[in-house]
Specification:
337 residues; alpha/beta; Rossmann fold; four-stranded parallel sheet; 19% strand
Length: 337
Amino acid sequence: MTDTRPRVAVLLTGGTIGSGGRDETDRLDYVDLALVLTDEQALPLYRFPDHIDVVTRRFTRMRSNDVDLTVWRRLREEILRIEREEPDIVGVVIAHGTATLEETAYFLQLTVPTDLPVVLVGAQRPPTALGSDAQTNLASAICLAASPAARGHGVLVAMDDHILCARDVTKAANHALDAFRARAYGPLGEIDAYGDVWMYRKDLRAHTTTSAFRHVLEDPAVELAPTEIVPTWAGSTPRLLERALADGVTGVVMAALPPSMSPAPVEAAIDAAAAAGVMVVQSSRASSGRVHHRRDFDRRGLVSSDSLSPQAARILLSLCLTAGFDLAQTRAAFATH
C-alpha cells in the first residue's frame, strides 16, 4: 500500500536537542560533558507524529557554539538538494543547538531561494533529562514543516509551541523553556497539542525566494565579507573598534547604548571609520525595538539596523558587503529584509 502521509526530512546537527547528560537529573552539566548522542542513542528518545512520514538524516554531530559559515553553506546546499532531487519531501526540519540557532535561521532566511518550509528547532533541556522539552519541540517542528500553512513563510523556528520568524527570533533566556521570543512583533502563530498549525501573521520583509542575497554564495569560492560586532558600555573606549579595523574588517555593527548611542570617543572613532569607507551599522544592545534611521545618520554615513538584533544585523551586513552593495543599497537592504 502506498504511504500517502506527508514526508518530512529531519536533519540532525547536535546541540541540546541531541545531547545526553550524566543521568536524568542533569539539566546543567551536560553542556560541559559535550556528549552529542549517536543516532542509535537519540532516536529512541523521540516520538514522531503518526500522520507524518519522518526521514531522519545525520548532518553533523556538533554543539552549536561551533557552527560557522561552512556549516551554514552546507545546510543551504542540502536544503536545495532536497528540493531539487526529492520532490516527495514537503518540508525540512533542522534540529539545532540553541546557542546559535537564531543566526543559522536568519542566514538561511536570506540565502536559500525556496518555498519549501524550513523549520529550525532546539531544546533547553537534553532529551535524557526529566521535564525535557526536546520531544515536544521536535514533534511540533515536524508538524509545522508538514503543514501547507507553513509554505511561503520563509525559514521558521518552532520552540515552546510558538512559531517564530527567523528575522525576529532571539534567545532571550539561558535556561527557561520559553527562551525563544520574537524581538519586536510577536510570534507568527502556534502549534497546538494536536499538532495543528495556526498562523496569524506573515513576515512582509524580503526573504528566501525574494531575498536580494539568494544567489550571492552559490559560488563556493566566494567568501563572506569580514565583519564584527563591537559592544558598547558606560565608559567604553574606541579600543575594540580600532582593533577590529586593524584586523581588516570591512563592516562593523555597533551594539550601542540604547537607542544607538556610544560614548563620545567611540562616536568619533565611528565617524572616522565611516569616512574611511568602513560600513557602520548602528544597532543597540536593547532587547527589542527599532533603531530608527535618524537624520544625523545621513550626515555621518551610517546605517540603521532597524529591528534586527546585533547578531542578525552582522549577517545582513556581511551579505551586503559580499554582494558589493554601496551605502545607499545597504540602507535599502536593511529597510527591506
